[in-house]
């Protein structure tokens, strides 16, 4: 009789990491449990696939995608997980693989804790109920997190991953901004240059020529935002964004956009009446009269700028 081959899949999300020690959710504990389970049943283990800090709602998990590719290639006949939710918390994903593609690929899906086994047609309804419960849990968790974020934003706490250019996160309180002595003078200089009559594009050219590090380059040199390359040249849009931001008045403006759905990474912008604006949360870099004067100039130039011709007019 041919020995069956299993692929072990483990997953740990950010939320799971916080309770891993107490609830034995860690990747190492999952791996040990599943290897023991496979050994007891005489299954050979093809490979162990593990994703850390990934939500079960996402399908772009690297190890998850590798597992699916190897499964489609027929490299194993069993996918073994601790629970169905470790594989996915998305009901649509569960249905597509557990009851769609896995049977076509000759793959049996098995879990240790909640006793899922696609070789048994008797528990198909239980698997589908599990899928819905797992998705509901994610939706409720997402809404709870959003509620906490909204409350913190209403209190004026800074929630961004990285401080705005000109500031740093307070080492004593990561939700508070403090003036950055290295980049705050550059912000002030950008406002001065604009009031002197230079356009955003001209300011960008001057800063680049002077070798002033861009916001993304500063993040890169400080070990932040490592996923991006870091632009060496300033752009007009970066300058314009700095000139428009009330953060330099000492005001916190957050919640300008939100996720389209708890299942999606994509966001959409929100109207101003839904933004969280809290004044005087940190030290200002720009005086109010300077900010207002720049604002008037920006608006005047916007109104006087030649309108872009439509495609029909260009023809």
Folded structure, characterized:
- With 315 residues, the chain is an alpha/beta fold.
- It is 46% helix and 15% strand.
- It contains twelve helices and ten strands.
- The protein has helices at 14-23, 27-40, 62-72, 84-87, 91-105, 124-154, 184-195, 200-209, 215-221, 236-244, 288-304, 311-314, and strands at 5-12, 44-52, 78-81, 108-111, 167-170, 173-179, 252-254, 257-259, 267-269, 276-278.
- Strands 2-1-3-4 form a four-stranded parallel beta sheet, sandwiched between helices. It has a two-stranded antiparallel ribbon with strand order 5-6. A two-stranded antiparallel ribbon has the order 7-10.
- A hairpin with a 7-residue loop joins strand 8 and strand 9.
- Helix 5 packs antiparallel against helix 6 and helix 8 crosses helix 10 (236-244).
- The longest helix is centred in the middle third of the chain and has 31 residues, at 124-154.
- It is elongated, with a radius of gyration of 26 Å.
- The termini are far apart.
- The model is unreliable at 20-24 and 309-315 (pLDDT under 50).
